[in-house]
Amino acid sequence: MRATSQDQAVERRSTDDREWTRQHLLDVDDLSGDEIDLLMETTDSMKEVLGRDVPRVPTLRGRTIVTLFYEASTRTRASFELAGKALGADVINVAAGGSSVEKGESLIDTVRTLQAVGADVLVMRHGSSGAPHLVARHIRSSVINAGDGWHAHPTQALLDLYTMRAHLGDVRGRRVVIVGDIAHSRVARSNIWLLSKAGAEVTVCGPATLLPAGLRPGDPPTEDPAALPRVNVETDLDAAVEGADVVMALRLQKERMSGGLLPSLREYARLYQLNESRLARAASGALVMHPGPINEGVEISPAVASSLQSVIDEQVTNGVAVRMAVLLLMCGVKRA
Ligand code: CP
Hints:
The chain is α/β, with parallel strands linked by helices. It has two domains: 5-149 and 317-331, Aspartate/ornithine carbamoyltransferase (Rossmann fold), CATH 3.40.50.1370; 154-305, 3-Layer(aba) Sandwich (Rossmann fold). Helices cover 38% and strands 13% of the residues. The strands form two sheets. It has a five-stranded parallel sheet with strand order 7-6-5-8-9. A four-stranded parallel sheet has the order 2-1-3-4, with helices on both faces. The structure holds phosphoric acid mono(formamide)ester. Phosphoric acid mono(formamide)ester binds next to helix 3.
């Protein structure tokens, strides 16, 4: 494959470690404004690559990316695989089911094995919060958190921010409402961090039983430095969406019913479903977002999910470019 001047621009970005010095991407809570801007600008370049007739560059040829998923995924795993391949890397997918995890191999032994077979980057999803942080302390490979428990989903928040910026430009001062199970959502946590850093005005909305401690009505302000940034909190969705620029609905996990946190799906949908009449209260042309997978008819009506205001498919598409940007920057890091 002959390198074009655009490929060389991608190559320059990949080796420019003046700006990107992180070995791992575990969360968004400690990203600087410059790092966020660099990720967004690099994603622009990756969108350009993906728009070509042959959407491939050889920049990561010879690198090996392993995806290791202990939980189900469609979007995240597929887009990391496509992203790695579009950059010319070898990509190996490992699911816990079907691997030696089933024979009792520990997490640390599993990741050391993947390092030993040559993984430069380990993209990892795990049901336990903090698992990628633990792994990052035990291996030399770069670790990307593809979702850990209720804690963080950094690349989802980055693709959400990228999608918002594509439509709204700078999100500073824009009103973003996140509705649903905020307490148990890694997507909500990562979006609260990233959107707050980007200057958006974030409102979270849901029943009090699905709001995290510290954000429930009547909770005293916390001094905990690890606490989420301050956001607006609403339990009435009609009030929350008034004038909003973006409304993001979150998947309602059905196990919240059995956990006694909600009376019924029907009641939840009556009070918290993003439907046409509620969307009409938002700003004209407000964006409708959802990280997926969707329970249509529960947290979002089919009409709203497929409306012209919905950018849900675009979020998924942008996920490939964002993950290319992350992989490219991570692989540009020079290690001792
Ligand atoms: N949004 C998201 O993480 O989707 P998947 O579970 O399909 O990866």
